[in-house]
Amino acid sequence: MNKQAELIREISGVNPLKCMKCGKCSASCPSYNEMDIKPHQFVSYVINEDIEALTASKSLYKCLSCFACVERCPRGVKPGKLIDAARQVVVRQRGQEYLSADEIPELLDDETPQQLLMSAFRKYRR
């Protein structure tokens, strides 16, 4: 098994093999028209271990992480979590520096919405 594909499955906690290719995830995606790899296709790429194509895809960053696809999936495949995990693989691959908790407060603007902060913590806590 491809090490990156295994890492995506581990980070996301998702079993992409449960996908029945119904397309409900893509149909509910607000970024569908902007994506070169659609959410239902993303699941197939993970199954086929074509991770290099995923990490080079614009879809990785066009996903809004709204998790509409997660809510609509009748099989609980959660394509949004797979996309989020693939982002984490890319970040780890590039070896980017993370901010420490002490550095964050000085970078925040008083107008920063709390929802944005919580979303960032959810995405990058892994």
Provide keyphrases for this structure:
126 residues, 0% strand
Descriptive report:
The protein has 126 residues and is mainly α. It has helices spanning 3-12, 24-27, 39-47, 51-55, 59-62, 68-72, 79-94, 104-107, 114-124. It is globular. The relative contact order is 0.17.
Which secondary structure elements does this structure contain, and how are they paired or packed?
Blueprint: H1 3-12, H2 24-27, H3 39-47, H4 51-55, H5 59-62, H6 68-72, H7 79-94, H8 104-107, H9 114-124
Helix pairs in contact: 1-7, 3-7
Compose a concise summary of this entry.
By secondary structure, the protein is an all-alpha fold.
- Shape by Cα distribution: globular
Radius of gyration: 15 Å
Q: Would you list the SSEs in sequence order as H and E?
A: HHHHHHHHH
Please report the distance between the alpha carbons of the first and last residues: 22 Å
Reported for the largest beta sheet, the result is: none
This entry's quaternary arrangement is single chain
Would you count the extended β strands for me?
0
Structural class comes to: mainly alpha
Q: Low-confidence runs (pLDDT<50, min 5 residues)?
A: none
Mean pLDDT: 84
Count of helical stretches: 9
Task: Please give the share of residues in helix.
Answer: 40-55%
Strand content: under 5%
